[in-house]
């Protein structure tokens, strides 16, 4: 229909209502509309019903042949100067009518498709949202992984541990050394050594020797010694005070023998006090522990 924008503006003066009407999706809300040609008055008569969020609006208009709005009425509180009028006028502006009376009814099929499309859009949004969540979680996971890996040392070589067994006050005690091809370094603080392995901390043993600790920094046999060390240290925490440099063996004796039996002899060194050496020597022999005695 021939309707000019300035005519819509003239009828719906309120800027907000005008804009609302302009951008309203009329097909969503217009339930039915009839336009008939009134021959005796030479104008069009339009009646329509809209449904917006369970509110019904009854709109009627009288439009001249050249597109002048002669009368407009809506049952909403704005009485014909409203978004409903504006929206229908914008709709009519685009509508091509070939014969009168013209009858429009909301297409249920079209409406259903709209509903389906809306549901599909929401579904897609939910999927997208879920994917975003998953991606975020993956990124966090990956970050954690990177952090862990970057804190693990780059290993150019693995070190070996050596256990030193001594007898003291009728007990067996063990101390530990780290071996390098040229030197050996005594572990002076077992607690900080174990903590360094757990948390990948750098320990400096001498001016020229230090490294970031981790299980991977030690060869496989030495890792067994570290596992034993961990276990034994927990108990020694209650048996000793101050910085722990050697571990006292008590209940762990059997486990210690078993471990030493399977490890190569270079992993253990046994020093005995002359006076009590025989009894320990016999004990070791009885348990068939084949070690090089120093
Ligand atoms: Zn209205």
Automatic annotation (TrEMBL):
Keyword Metal-binding on entry: yes
Highest taxon in the source lineage: Bacteria
Keywords: Metal-binding, Zinc, Zinc-finger
Ranges for domain SWIM-type: 59-93
Organism, as annotated: Allocoprobacillus halotolerans
PROSITE patterns: ZF_SWIM
Protein name: SWIM-type domain-containing protein
